[in-house]
Design brief:
The chain has 496 residues and is α/β, with parallel strands linked by helices. It is built from 16 helices and 19 strands. The structure holds flavin-adenine dinucleotide.
Length: 496
Amino acid sequence: MGTKKNAVVIGSGFAGLSAAALLAQQGHNVTLLEKNSQAGGRARTWQQNGFTFDMGPSWYWMPEVFEQYYNLFGNTASNFYQLQRLDPSYKIFYPNQDIDVPASYTELIALFEKNEQGSGEKLEEFLADARYKYETAMSDFVFRVSDSVTEFLDLNLLVQAFKLKLFSSIRSEVREKFKNPALVSLLEFPVLFLGSTPSNTPAMYSMMNYADLVLGTWYPMGGMHKIAEAFVTIAKQQGVKLILNCEVKRIEVDGKGLAKLVHTNLGTYPADIVVAGSDYHHTEQQLLDKPYRQYSEQYWNKRTMSPSSLLYYIGINKRLPNLLHHNLFFDADFEQHANEIYDTPRWPSNPLFYACVPSITDATVAPQGMENLFLLMPLAPGLPDSEQIREDYFNKMITRLEAKTGEHIRNNIVVKRSYCVSDFERDYNSYKGNAYGLANTLAQTAILKPKMISAKVKNLFYVGQLTVPGPGMPPAIISGRIAAAEIAKRISKNQL
Ligand SMILES: Cc1cc2nc3c(=O)[nH]c(=O)nc-3n(C[C@H](O)[C@H](O)[C@H](O)COP(=O)(O)OP(=O)(O)OC[C@H]3O[C@@H](n4cnc5c(N)ncnc54)[C@H](O)[C@@H]3O)c2cc1C
């Protein structure tokens, strides 16, 4: 067999788009199949009455991951969108105070010092350590295929693993240094992005604090969907054939254990290589015949998934001057809400939530004089949801928004759409309606995640937020890069 292969990639999220473009760049004939009418996966967009809503991600962190990706194709982010650093980065509402987190490092240290004497210096130490973790992880760990423990059996790496504190929790790391509850939750909040609780997340992930507080929070003017559009443009420039409204129904494996045919609602595609960017559980349990699945339903049921979410996309016919672009409502008990997500899954009694108002930065996403409001409430995956439950929580969130901002909002709503567990399941074939994949817990890190390379089907690779390196746009992009590099390596060794 020659080196030019037919590669079929399933799912046009960042992981699928990244793998597809890189495989095309390697010279393969790549077809990317997407069930929805829009590419971008979780980062789709919805337009209504002059409002443009980003349906999923809203925080642009780790800009160099995007930049490195664009550089692989001789591009740079500014070829596609103008990036703006937000300052303040975000606002946190606590029960008795609110904090604007400044972009400036000096102002940040002063903010800590003002809230807890001596904490400014401790923050400097904490962030220096977080920087070490970030740089070590990003130059090595994160790019590993994590297929076997032998990859990590290098003395130098093991020493690094201990320095990275892979084996202790971020909660103890933060609480050892800081006592003020507001500062503690400011430092523990990025863990929410990793879909887990601070006590269950390796201290290594304080690297996310470095990403948050030092590298900064950015926004692509025009909206987050500009990123997905950029990825689609690159993929097409590389020759990827993107087919929308094309749902994969079955991956057919031949007698030699090779995925050969991909059956869809639009026809059948022959394949030498299959890369699945679709939800891992769905791919295994629904697209593959039983002998080719590596994990059982019981295995999946025991995984800690990231939360699902109750989302609202809302158009308001006036401005909301007391909010920032990103606003975290931590005016409720974090521990209790976390418990209701992970330990005793149920609709939360008094939830934390997040309000994003991109129209504060970007005039194009709402009509003049109006505001684009996106609400997100993390929720245990797999809960039953109904219009009535959604509406009850909508009322709770709006009541708190009105109280904290001193603005009437309820009667100024001109567009409103909810999105919850059953929508994630229907639109993305998402296991239990997870919003952002598998949680990065202590027991689900690196080699302990579902494997990227199928042990049962030699030419099948999994990418995206349920495998390495984890949830979020930057990891999804990296996931596609790891898979494409691994495929190139295997082809060069005649293993594919
Ligand atoms: C509400 C929300 C907020 C988020 N906020 C942030 C944030 O602020 N910052 C950040 O970095 N990350 C954020 N994330 C996480 C981030 O969006 C995801 O981790 C990332 O986009 C996942 O990319 P992916 O390629 O792994 O999966 P997906 O984006 O889910 O892509 C998988 C694709 O596969 C398709 N598919 C599924 N089954 C089939 C099939 N049988 N046939 C064909 N196609 C199929 C799906 O339609 C989908 O397009 C957020 C996610 C959500 C949902």
